[in-house]
Amino acid sequence: MEVIPSANVGLKINEWHMYINRFDVRNAEKVKAEVEQMIDVMEENQDLLIYYQLIEFRHRMMLDYLFPADPSKKINKGDYLKKIEGKGKKLSGMMEYYTYFFKGMYDFSIGEYIRAIQSYKKAEKKLSRVLDEIEKAEFYFKMAEVFYHMKQTHVSMYYVQQAYEIYKKHDTYKIHRIKCHFVIAGNYDDLRTHDRALSHMKKALFLLDSMEDHSPLKAKALLNMGNSYNQMGSLFSAVPYYHKAIKAAKISGAKEITQAYYDLALIHFRNNEKIEGRGFFGKAMEQAEEFNDSLFQDLLNVLKALFIETGSRQKVMNALEALRTGQGYPYFEELALIAAEFYTMDKRMEDSIYFYNEMVCAQRQIQRGDKKALSPY
């Protein structure tokens, strides 16, 4: 059975909470049952289970109010609400925190980064209600992750360092430390300090090797090593890491295999090695379809229009249109630059200038998104 992301379960718990607040017993019971079924096949997430327990407590209080064991002791709605508050504002604050936290997680999972940040910011106002430092570290990491994707590098670094400082005090949280190294390395790559990025990726690989299992993170770590060397222009070092990532992904079933094939296809296409490029392109498309990865299907369609078909400006632009989203604009920016360089090499300067302009427009869209995400409103 397919594992359900905890963000999806969190959103369903938010729906359950809504029906409780409306005293809609029928729908509350229905959604409660759905939540419990989802939890049985959900990825591991302790924060989600705490949120479930809090809402389950509210559910029982609602039933006690509506259907008391002794009907003569039924209280009015005003007294019921006071009773809830009497359980402590801390409890209400924690429920509000988890409501926004899991809403942010869900928005992030579907690529709505600005909405995710807005939800996380609301959760942050209630973070003082959370006493467990590991839960706080999880929040800091989620903030770091979304700001990294929005290319708000320094903000991302601020949050990921807070998360890492907590996780490194606990030996049992190696996976979380590895994920922190991924985000730190990604930020350093964005700052073009690739030597620092490689240092953190090597630390992540060391931790993974010490665990002696076939974690999907191994493929991601190797892929990130390849990306760092690729961005440095050291293809001789990058290509072997992409192949190692593919090997690790085949063992663990990691979806990163799609990106490894995609990156190899792009490297060969840009070097005018069309036969090799087509080979890796086909493998990347096969994996994107197998994992139902619409983002990489869109990225591969751009490569197809640019390198396999006629390379007409209109066809490339049609393929790029699918990337005009919060999640897609960083890829749009990169591929517009690649298209501009492709047309420069082909001495089609008008097309080259056109795509340089498109790259600048994408950068502006990312910056506008950053400003909106950082707004307190």
UniProtKB/TrEMBL annotation:
Segments annotated as TPR repeats: 219-252
InterPro entries for this protein: Bac_ResReg_Asp_Phosphatase, TPR-like_helical_dom_sf, TPR_rpt
Domain of life: Bacteria
Subcellular location: Cytoplasm
GO CC annotations, alphabetized: cytoplasm
Keywords: Cytoplasm, Plasmid, Repeat, TPR repeat
Family according to the record: Belongs to the Rap family.
Name used for this protein in its record: Aspartate phosphatase
Organism: Bacillus subtilis
